[in-house]
Specification:
Layout: E1 6-7, E2 28-29, H1 35-38, E3 68-83, E4 88-106, E5 109-128, H2 132-138, E6 141-162, E7 166-187, E8 195-217, E9 222-231, E10 234-248, E11 251-267, E12 270-279, E13 283-292, E14 307-311, E15 314-323, E16 338-354, E17 360-376, E18 379-394, E19 402-417
Antiparallel strand pairs: 1-5, 2-5, 3-4, 3-19, 4-5, 5-6, 6-7, 7-8, 8-9, 8-10, 9-12, 10-11, 12-13, 13-15, 14-16, 15-16, 16-17, 17-18, 18-19
Amino acid sequence: MLTPVFIYAQNSDASGTYSPYSFYGVGTLTKPGFAYNKAMGGIGYGLRTNKLINYLNPAAINKQDSLSFLFDFGGELQNYYISSSEQSTAANSFNLDHIAFSFPIWKKMAAAVAVMPYSHVGYDISREETDPDVIVETGSTQYSYVGEGGLNQFIVSFASGIGERLSVGVHGQYIFGSIDRYYNIYFGSSAIHPIYNTSSLKASSYAFTLGAQYELPINKDYQAVLGATYQFRNNMKVDRTDFTYITSSIGTDTIRFQEQPNARLLVPSSLGLGFSIQKQNKWLAGFDYTYQDWRSASFDAPSSGQLNFKATPSHSFRGGFEYIPNMYDIRYFMRRISYRAGLYYEKTYMQFTNSTTGHTNQIKDYGVTFGVGVPLGRYSHNAVNIGAEIGQRGTTNDGLLREFYWKVSLSISLYDIWFVKPRYD
């Protein structure tokens, strides 16, 4: 798959991504968090704040103030520059990223609801046959791979405090959407008709995640938080249709038509660990680690030439920092802005072995992030959050592709107090 002669860009705003690495499984999983999290490298397992919705750890949502309602929505702009050892191309997209709100239930209990993408698929790759024995029989042969679509998720979260320091939470996901993949073969010989293959996948499945956070007060100004999440293995239910046909001057001839209404696509369990330390209303620093073993996962893709794919365990490391000069400054607006930065490094589940050189490469994804939280009016809890990241995934070695990308996330966070009886009429 990743041995391209030509790489075509999908410059459609309807595409959630343009990445050859969305070729497998359910595509490229979305980066964690909203603009607030993404500006700090994507951390969230150990973050507890009453100002924003942090869905990365369901145990975090009961931190909000009593009678407070939080609402968050935003979008993301993405730009990719993709290159092989011979060619390069660029693509961009813009998408609504999320809509979420949270509210208290009773005492130390709270709930949250969110809708956001789960994964994106978007690629358009072409390669030419290089085997001289095949070329003698069929002439110049070209293979085309196109993929589009993605999955979304509807999340409902609940959290409760246990004692003074421990909070636990759970969120359930309903995952839905469709993915279409096209694999076509074009022959140089006019005597051989092109072969067209369409594979469609429609998902409708549930998943669950548990979370916990433990607060460690250091003194009246400083506090540390330990966090952990466990996402259960998800044997995702999918309806799959595969259709192969050829066309000629006399019409269309179906070679294969197969329906699998109750197929399964395994997404493995994952473990997340994180911590944060902060000086109240001044600064915060945190670190997250995520492990996910993809070796038993289900992947479905056509033959991809000289590169052999293998799923392997993934490891993700994320760190971030936030600094607020003076949250309550009434003279200088710039001092009330939250300044954020972070970095991330991930050894993804994708591993490729080049059958010609024998070299094995596990695809790595790394980058830096930065952003701001701009308060709206005098109430610092209402804010426009902007997060930007610059990163790179993959390499041009051994017939692979390298993605250089930048992304900008924008979200608006609104905070309000409900059901407060006015003191004066």
